[in-house]
Design a protein that fits this description.
It is a single chain. The protein is mainly alpha-helical. The chain has two domains: about 60 residues, no CATH class; about 120 residues, Cytochrome Bc1 Complex, Chain D, domain 2 (Orthogonal Bundle). The chain is built from eight helices and no strands. The longest helix has 18 residues. It is globular. It starts with 12 loop residues before the first helix and ends with a helix. About 25% of the residues are buried.
Length: about 190
């Protein structure tokens, strides 16, 4: 078996989306968790592995899924602030996986078909507040083009949380669980 040290928040989402449960979050970076991951990683696995591992995954606790916010108010806010681009049924714009001629990606869906559930609450909140280009600029990607405007001057924090609650309420249990795990890892890393 090859030793794998995982310093990323999790093994690529492709492994999780494909049904794998092999994750090591920042919160799980205790010596015991790292040792378990190192000894159970499949031969040849690396932190860039895109296939779910074949060996039995270590059992890690997952946080309970709690959707905080007013889902009904979130739906109304979503319809007035987000649906023009992301669709009234969270379906996103056609061709959202490919950048247009201007280098800007169309608005992604916010249902299970999209990637919103791949991100933790803080990243989603920052993306909504700042907009895509500004958030990426703050993360060192000055040339990132985004069609997502910032809503920080338009929406209050509790309104953003209500929108996110509405979006989350439309996800499958699996997507909710993965996103809750991501959010827990974000919180642990921030401490």
């Amino acid at each position: 078996m090859k030793t794998v040290t995982l310093l990323a928040i999790l093994v690529p989402m492709a492994a999780i989306a494909a049904g794998g449960a092999w994750m090591l979050t920042v919160a799980d970076r205790s010596e015991e968790a790292v040792e378990t991951a190192q000894t159970t990683a499949p031969s040849g696995a690396t932190s860039g592995t895109t296939q779910p591992p074949q060996a039995a995954a270590p059992q890690m606790s997952t946080p309970p899924v709690v959707i905080s916010g007013d889902i009904d108010r979130g739906e109304q806010l979503y319809l007035t602030s987000c649906a023009a681009c992301h669709g009234t049924n969270l379906e996103g714009q056609e061709g959202w996986r490919s950048a247009g001629p201007d280098g800007v990606f169309p608005a992604p869906p916010h249902n299970d078909d999209g990637h919103t559930w791949h991100h933790g609450d803080q990243l989603l909140t920052d993306y909504i507040k700042l907009g895509g280009a500004e958030l990426m600029r703050r993360q060192g990607m000055a040339d990132f083009k985004s069609g997502m405007p910032g809503f920080g001057e338009i929406l209050e924090d509790d309104e953003i949380q209500d929108i996110l609650a509405y979006i989350k309420s439309n996800w499958s249990e699996r997507s909710q669980q993965v996103q809750a795990t991501r959010s827990a890892a974000e919180r642990a890393q921030a401490q």
